[in-house]
Amino acid sequence: MTKPSSSDKPASGDSGLRKGLTSYGDQGFSLFLRKAFIKGSGYTDAALDRPVIGITNTGSAFNPCHGNMPQLLEAVKRGIMLAGGLPMDFPTISVHESFAAPTSMYLRNLMSMDTEEMIRAQPMDAVILIGGCDKTVPAQLMGAASAGLPAIQLVTGAMLTGSHRGERVGACTDCRRYWGKYRAAEIDDDEIAHVNDQLVSSVGTCSVMGTASTMACLAEALGIALPGSATPPAVTADRIRIAEQTGARAVELARERLTIDRILTPEAFENAMRVLLAIGGSTNGIVHLAAIAGRMGLEIDMQALDRLGRETPVLLDLKPTGQHYMEDFHKAGGMATLLRELRPLLRLDALTVTGRTLGEEIERAGPGFPQQVVRRRDDPIYPQGGIAVLRGNLAPGGAIIKQSAADARLMEHEGRAVVFDNAADLLARIDSDDLDVTADDVLVLRNIGPRGAPGMPEAGYIPIPRKLARAGVKDMVRISDGRMSGTAFGTVVLHVTPEAAIGGPLALVRSGDRIRLSVSRRELSLLVDEAELARRAAEAPVTVPSAPRGYLKLFLQSVTQADQGVDFDFLRAAESRGKTPR
Ligand code: FES
């Protein structure tokens, strides 16, 4: 029998199990009751006196990208206990790209609210955020940034690659490539079925530089994840060891009270932007960075991002920009190899969760070794950063293009618009033999922005019309107010802001108009005079989408545009701390 412990007395400090007591009007009773309930699980007072480390458990049968969650949880808990803490995992929403309708982005903000509020509501001294699939890491960082506790990110890690008839394949650049072949009738039903078996050969996140891999690298660049934690594949011993180390470090973070605001600084965001550009990262990365920065009162300066892009070459030879996969990046030394090469361009004084600066961590990683995956700055994969920021009368608030994954032939292009009014219109007409379209035209898809779809789905990768695909056309200029998967490639202009659904100029384009894209001049122009555009706007005023109830109502009322991260306006920090990078 255990006697009542001194810790049953009202809290003198605000830590461990004494934090955030439930309101019963008597604090002593609140703690007494809390301990009585938790003791129902067999805990002793000695265990309950330790620093409490919360762990977000995002395991879900609907989320194979988090399929190693049981092993990660076990290792994280081991690390916490070895360091003298008490691990307490708790469930939050988990979102997988292929299992979320209408789109995972619609649910990212909900997950961030869940994460923030459960961190706030439950007693913990630090939190470990275990996420991986595209929207989960940004949602967790947004929520943790708002909650303000010491926090550390652990990603689930990439899947392994598979093999199809001797060719190495992995989700999801190869998914799109093979589906394109199937659409063009280059491969048959049997072959596409075999490819389907091979694309995802283990649990874990997509094996190319899609959004999940991008966010894993950005988390390390932000300093919110342990050095070396971005790249170990999901099913490796390295991944499990990182999990144990993350658990142990979280206990020290709690003791040091190293809160997240000291990590997510303007310098950290600048480093993340440099890395995003240098890895040829997903265009979604910039939306998520804008949302996380917004939670810290910071605004991503898109013009400054473009400036950084002109001096930051793509160094990472990974699909879809290059040829390798995440497991190759890991074997090539992972982020340490990349950061070492980028060193002169980085803010080395940015603090990381280790308590050391990024510069100190690069030093500690030691010298590099010969490898094929990270290029030298004088021999890059692409001479500028992966993402270019466009402006013009078609996108007064900006648009972006992943220039490193685009066709060089189409980067300076003028063509006739072929307009699809929304995703349903696209579906109905894109494969019609009657569609009036040539390879030189510009495909325009509107009403797939934050409010239009809603949730800004990854439908911006407009398929090549079937009749052109069968004729061998592989790429065309495509423009939309939506997003594109980081695993996709092509001359695709995205995030046109403001979106058509709130009356952006994209709503005024008509089939047959001329559109000019000049990536070298960062220009996206609709070649129609202002008077005609004003006439069209007056003729067909836009009705902004709304909903009568529920989360959809909240979403449509509150969602911001791409340049503000598609976050809810009421979740951004109340106080502005200016723009980043400075
Ligand atoms: Fe989860 Fe690609 S679907 S990371």
UniProtKB/TrEMBL annotation:
Residues 372-565 form the Dihydroxy-acid/6-phosphogluconate dehydratase C-terminal domain. Residues 50-360 form the Dihydroxy-acid/6-phosphogluconate dehydratase N-terminal domain. GO terms for molecular function: hydro-lyase activity; iron-sulfur cluster binding; metal ion binding. InterPro entries: Dihydro-acid_dehy_C, DiOHA_6PGluconate_deHydtase_CS, ILV_EDD_C, ILV_EDD_N, IlvD/EDD_N, Sugar_Degrad_Dehydratases. SUPFAM superfamilies: IlvD/EDD N-terminal domain-like, LeuD/IlvD-like. Keywords: Iron, Iron-sulfur, Lyase, Metal-binding. Signal peptide: none annotated. It comes from the Bacteria. Belongs to the IlvD/Edd family. This is Dihydroxy-acid dehydratase.
